[in-house]
Amino acid sequence: MSKENNETTKEGFVNPALQMYESAAESGLKFQEKFLKGVEMFAGLEYDDINVTPKDVVLQIDKMKLYRYRSPKKVNTTPVLIVYALMNKQYIMDLQQEKSFVKKLVESGLDLYIIDC
């Protein structure tokens, strides 16, 4: 019986485990490249306009703060309370002024409150 290449089985087919390993390694490398490109992109961003919609702290208990956003016009008198994910920060809703969810709500005339923990 002749010695066989480590990459093939007795039948001459590529070992399925080796194919799976190579595929996983390629996928891992592609993911790593995408991840590094994303890190480079975010590292180059300027964060000057984050969380700039005018607001006041109306209540603070330990680390919890309740903010009320200043609205130039209050069309709706019923207050709206946003309870954002307690593991994240509330400013995620107010990242870029041209795309800010909070800014859009305030400009529409809502009396807006948000909790930050």
Quickly describe the structure.
By secondary structure, the protein is of the alpha+beta class.
Keywords:
117 residues, alpha+beta, 2 domains, four-stranded mixed β-sheet, 2 helices, 30% helix, elongated
Biggest sheet strand order reads 1-2-4-3
> Measured on Cα atoms, how large is the radius of gyration?
27 Å
Major β-sheet, in short?
4 strands, mixed
Structural class: alpha+beta
Strand % is 15-25%
Q: Helix coverage percent of residues? A: 25-40%
What is the domain tally?
A: 2
| SSE ordering | HEEEHE
Q: End-to-end span in angstroms?
A: 71 Å
- Give me the number of helical elements: 2
Tell how many strands the DSSP assignment holds.
4
**Unreliable stretches covering 5 or more consecutive residues:** none
* Backbone shape: elongated
Mean pLDDT: 82
Care to describe what's here?
The protein has helices spanning 16-43, 101-107, and strands spanning 55-61, 64-69, 79-83, 111-116. With 117 residues, the chain is an alpha+beta fold.
Strand-helix topology:
Blueprint: H1 16-43, E1 55-61, E2 64-69, E3 79-83, H2 101-107, E4 111-116
Parallel strand pairs: 3-4
Antiparallel strand pairs: 1-2, 2-4
